[in-house]
Amino acid sequence: MSITFKKCTFEDLRTLQDISCETFNETFKDQNSPENMVAYLEEAFNSNQLEKEWSNRSSEFFLVYFNHEVAGYLKLNTNDAQSEDMGDESLEVERIYIKKQFQKQGLGKYLLMKAQEIALERKKKKIWLGVWEKNENAIGFYKKLGFVQTGTHPFYMGDEEQTDFIMSKTLG
């Protein structure tokens, strides 16, 4: 088993778009209306939006490979790129997207550990993320890795307002 990790380049944007749409759809299509799924995917993962996110100096994307195949990606935000104002001492894990066929291989944990390493290298004191309140598997996974719920924020799926739990972990 071989896992590798690399920072995304501009040439990787199409791959990010494909993974984003595929994994988001697989994960959430059964709990949301088709109309809201289409609206969200078209807004969040269109080429212009991903290029804008990738160009932000306070955001970074990393691809993860499993046995030399692209398996998913990680998106991190600091400073003003964070989706909530958590301050300069925090790093947000905005996305951990793993393709279905690569799940249950330890890649989610691997990416969270990489995020924590990056946060510590940058002298961050806290790492945090948002997770849908109905995504019990993910909430349990984050709790096992030391995250605790510290708040909530709204998440819009098309025209429907949903609630994400904010989960944080103090580093040190």
Description:
Strand 2 (59-66) and strand 3 form a beta hairpin. This protein has one domain: Gcn5-related N-acetyltransferase (GNAT) (Aminopeptidase, 3-Layer(aba) Sandwich). The protein is α+β, with helices and mostly antiparallel strands. The chain has helices at residues 13-28, 34-44, 47-55, 107-121, 136-144, and strands at residues 3-7, 59-66, 69-77, 90-98, 126-132, 148-157, 160-170. The mean pLDDT is 95. It has a 7-stranded mixed β-sheet, sandwiched between helices. Helix 1 packs across helix 3. The chain has 5 helices and 7 strands; from the N terminus they run E-H-H-H-E-E-E-H-E-H-E-E. The longest helix has 16 residues, at 13-28.
Return residue spans where pLDDT drops below 50 for at least 5 consecutive residues.
Answer: none
The shape is: globular
CATH architecture: 3-Layer(aba) Sandwich
Radius of gyration: 15 Å
Helicity range of the residues?
Answer: 25-40%
Number of strands: 7
Number of structural domains: 1
Task: Count helical runs.
Answer: 5
Distinctive features:
172 residues; Aminopeptidase; single chain; seven-stranded mixed beta sheet; alpha+beta
Summarize the structure.
With about 170 residues, the chain is of the alpha+beta class. The chain has helices spanning about 15-30, 35-45, 45-55, 105-120, 135-145; strands spanning about 5, 60-65, 70-75, 90-100, 125-130, 150-155, 160-170.
